[in-house]
Amino acid sequence: MHSISICVGSSCHLKGAYDVIKEFKRLIAENSMEEQIELKACFCLGECQDGVSILVDGQIFTSLNKDKTAGFFHEHFLQA
Questions:
Q1: Beta carbons within 8 Å of 79's beta carbon, 6+ residues apart
Q2: Which pLDDT tens digit goes with each residue over 13-67?
Q3: Residue 17 and residue 7: Cα distance in Å, rounded?
Q4: Span 2-78: which CATH code?
Q5: Measured between alpha carbons, how far is 34 from 15 in angstroms, rounded to an integer?
Q6: H-helix or E-strand spanning residue 59
Q7: pTM for this structure?
Q8: At what angle do helices 66-73 and 17-30 cross, to 10 degrees?
């Protein structure tokens, strides 16, 4: 199972973390991957200057926003 943790700390929240969460939820459901991907919110991944930050299977990615989420999802979860 894959794990996605999305930072909802102050900086990431202001940069649209909750929009990113909603988009990931939509993409996970649209691709019937609820049993393959665990999505959760977390606080501060230490990359505040580059938020929205996410942790995917132990690796941090930064500068995500709602518009980049579908491309990120496709690249990391659908191209296997």
A1: none
A2: 999 999 999 999 999 999 999 999 999 999 999 999 998 999 999 999 999 999 9
A3: 7
A4: 3.40.30.10
A5: 26
A6: strand 59-61
A7: 0.94
A8: 40
